[in-house]
Recover the amino acids of this structure.
């Protein structure tokens, strides 16, 4: 059928009108009519009000969403940390270096896990029981616990790991922790430890990483340190080894760790944590400043001044270590005089030593217990780093405090010592006040020794400082107790067991009673404290012990150094608290994150 062009347009217009009419909202034509009757100005006002209404509605919806939703961490993000020295023994029974301990901390997990606040929570274990006499610890393993290769983790793996730790042929640094401990397994998911006597710090032992028996059972003691599993570890911790690189000598240059979804405390957020190894701290700092690594740990206070990056945070926390001067009164009779020890203590300014030797990154001590171990301390989170955070170099050491020197002189005079102006020395019963201070060849120790000697020489004490290479220091000075006084540090740790450092039975090597201290009352307090399972009772015993030490003054307690950690500002969730070794900065690494999202509260549980 032929239609002219006008007829075609008329028919098309009718069809369009019909379709539009069918799609119209009822009574919409009324609204259209009203709008058509409005003037241009009235229409402009109406449109403006409509826009305001739309924006208000969006704002209300946004506020409601804010009330019913939370910002929560989500999976994603990476972190690259630089380390000095290679990683060789990624094995909880063999770790020797800082890189070893750091990676092992992330790859392995124990029956229990320490928290940054100093407490312990079940990890591989679901629960535990302690007998009323404090000698039997029973742990119940989570049935869902597995190793990184998917193999179930059972009591057999725990018994196997402890047997290796106790085996003298393995030469594990952890062997001393398990001497005399009997371990048994009533069933597949229960492990029981029987101690020869109550030992409250045993909970620390239960954090040791567990090895997979199915991979290690055929490895002999002779082959144990050389097995490839030491560099290709399989554990049950929050991260597992993904990729790694080596140099021409076979030494590792990089490790990439990936999150383990089967970790008992929840899959970690970061999708990768990498470690890159450098020959020395100078190379590490350069890599950090160049942005090749995101984080550095354990950096010295002196090197903070060379940090040029502005996108990092810094965290510093006192290490559970006690540095001081320990007197060997048997070798140097002059130090057996109580007035001499009191005067030597009074003559020094500990806060000034912290500023000079540690650039302020330390806490002055007045006793044998480091800060935070006895009374607890809240975890430290990183804060913004700036040049103001870095220590300023001390151009000239300040003169010794005259008030302190006057107090020290008065103590000596009261103790019967006479000062000879001609010789510039103190004497008593023909005995000259002089001794030798020994220490190891380490920058902070040397700086501390020099500051001590300066104060004592200003007092009129004839003191000389002898610095030894660390190997010589340990073999020829420390172990045979061949010193008058020694400047050194004690790693007290989170568990606060001072028995090895102060009990009279520990005066000789391999004991660590460097002051050769003997006091029967102190011995009793130390024995009771290590057996006390109630924290308040143990703290009371240590407080009484500290009072005895303050009275007898067998040592001068100087400071606890601070651990320094630089991390990217984009990294959140980092908490540093009381830890035994720097590797324990990773205790809550499974909670670190960089990415977040707004999620309704009802869906926020991970």
């Amino acid at each position: 059928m032929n239609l002219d062009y006008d007829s075609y347009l008329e028919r098309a217009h009718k069809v369009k009108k019909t379709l539009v009419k069918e799609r119209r909202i009822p009574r919409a034509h009324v609204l259209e009519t009203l709008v058509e009757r409005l003037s241009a100005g009235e229409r402009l006002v109406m449109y403006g009000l409509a826009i305001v209404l739309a924006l208000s509605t969006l704002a209300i919806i946004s506020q409601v969403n804010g009330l019913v939703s939370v910002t929560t961490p989500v999976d994603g993000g990476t972190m690259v940390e630089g380390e000095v020295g290679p990683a060789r023994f990624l094995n909880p029974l063999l770790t020797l270096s800082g890189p070893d301990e750091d990676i092992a901390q992330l790859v392995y997990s124990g029956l229990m896990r320490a928290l940054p606040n100093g407490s312990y929570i079940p990890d591989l274990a679901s629960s535990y029981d302690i007998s009323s006499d404090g000698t039997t610890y029973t742990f119940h393993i989570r049935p869902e616990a597995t190793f990184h290769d998917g193999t179930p983790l059972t009591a057999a793996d725990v018994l196997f790991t402890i047997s290796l730790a106790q085996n003298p042929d393995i030469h594990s640094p952890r062997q001393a922790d398990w001497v005399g401990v009997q371990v048994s397994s009533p069933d597949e998911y229960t492990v029981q430890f029987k101690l020869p006597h109550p030992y409250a710090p045993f909970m620390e032992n239960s954090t040791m990483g567990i090895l997979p028996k199915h991979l290690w059972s055929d490895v002999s003691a002779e082959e144990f340190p050389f097995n490839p599993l030491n560099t290709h570890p399989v554990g049950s911790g929050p991260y597992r080894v993904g990729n790694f690189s080596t140099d021409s000598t076979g030494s590792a240059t990089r490790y990439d760790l990936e999150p383990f979804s089967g970790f008992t405390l929840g899959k970690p957020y970061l999708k990768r944590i990498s470690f890159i190894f450098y020959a020395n701290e100078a190379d590490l700092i350069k890599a950090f400043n160049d942005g090749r690594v995101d984080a550095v740990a354990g950096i010295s206070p002196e090197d903070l001044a060379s940090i040029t990056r502005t996108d990092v945070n810094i965290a510093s926390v006192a290490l559970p270590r006690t540095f001081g001067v320990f007197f060997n009164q048997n070798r140097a009779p002059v130090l057996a005089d109580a007035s001499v020890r009191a005067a030597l203590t009074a003559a020094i300014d500990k806060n000034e030593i912290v500023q000079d030797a540690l650039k302020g990154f330390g806490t002055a001590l007045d006793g044998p217990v480091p800060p935070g171990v006895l009374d607890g301390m809240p975890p430290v989170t990183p804060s913004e780093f700036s040049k103001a955070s870095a220590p300023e170099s001390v151009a000239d050491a300040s003169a010794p405090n005259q008030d302190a020197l006057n107090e020290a002189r008065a103590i000596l005079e009261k103790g019967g010592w006479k000062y000879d102006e001609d010789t510039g020395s103190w004497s008593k019963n023909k005995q000259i006040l002089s001794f030798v201070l020994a220490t190891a060849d380490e920058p902070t120790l040397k700086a501390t020794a020099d500051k001590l000697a300066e104060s004592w020489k200003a007092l009129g004490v004839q003191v000389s400082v002898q610095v030894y290479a660390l190997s010589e220091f340990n073999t020829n000075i420390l172990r045979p107790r061949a010193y008058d006084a020694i400047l050194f540090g004690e790693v007290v740790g989170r568990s606060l067991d001072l028995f090895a450092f102060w009990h009279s039975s520990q005066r000789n090597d391999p004991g660590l009673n460097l002051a050769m201290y003997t006091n029967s009352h102190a011995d009793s307090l130390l024995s009771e404290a290590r057996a006390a399972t109630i924290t308040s009772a143990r703290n009371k015993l240590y407080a009484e012990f500290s009072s005895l030490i303050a009275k007898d003054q067998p040592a001068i307690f100087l400071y606890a150094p601070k651990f320094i950690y630089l991390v990217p500002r984009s990294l959140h969730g980092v908490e540093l608290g009381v830890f035994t070794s720097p590797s324990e900065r990773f205790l809550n690494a499974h909670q670190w994150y960089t990415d977040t999202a707004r999620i309704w509260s009802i869906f926020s549980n991970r």
Q: What stands out?
A: Residues 40-68 form the longest helix (29 residues). The chain has three domains: 28-74, 78-294+571-603, 321-562.
